[in-house]
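seq/struct pair 1
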Amino acid sequence: MKPYLSSKKKLDNVGLGAVFGLITPIITLYGFYLFKYNYLSFSDFYSKILLANNILLPSISLCVIVNLLVFFIFIWTDRNYSARGVLLATMVYAGYVISKKYL
């Protein structure tokens, strides 16, 4: 087996993809906060902007779209198990949004 194949297989697992899929929307939301509302503390942004305007769930839904980029990066680099992990994390976010919105 060639050495580059074994190093690539280390990065090809569902757990790693799930971690990337769970962290990427959080980083995206934090980046939006830094870009638009950096004059507030993050706790003020969360309570006064997201919760007070009732836009937390739409914000989460939009931040999860960035998982598409992570998913396709894993697909293009032939890391299919990691792509499955990203898909799993996206389903977790979708389940959370659906449960909060309709239940």
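seq/struct pair 2
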Amino acid sequence: MLAFAMPAEFTRAQVEAIAALAHLELDASEVETFARQLGDILAYAGQLQQVDTSGVPPTTYSVGPHSEDRPDRVVPSLPIEEVLANAPESDRSRDGGFFKVPRVIG
């Protein structure tokens, strides 16, 4: 059970405040639609809070361990020269070698 009461519906002002925080520009019909939809979501969450879960044990994992899981093991990797041989451009002069890639952030 939540420690606070959820509102039954969203007001236009609340939807507009949320839209402003998200930097969204909504027209009047969108504000009304979102207010109704958000209110419906809260009403459904209220219904879920009424479900008696006292006999249900808490869970910590949604998925258990799989038989496909395997322990990590150290294996030799490719030599640096072989890895960099197919690179379009690389810097072999530094210790270890690096791939040169185009600048992404200006």
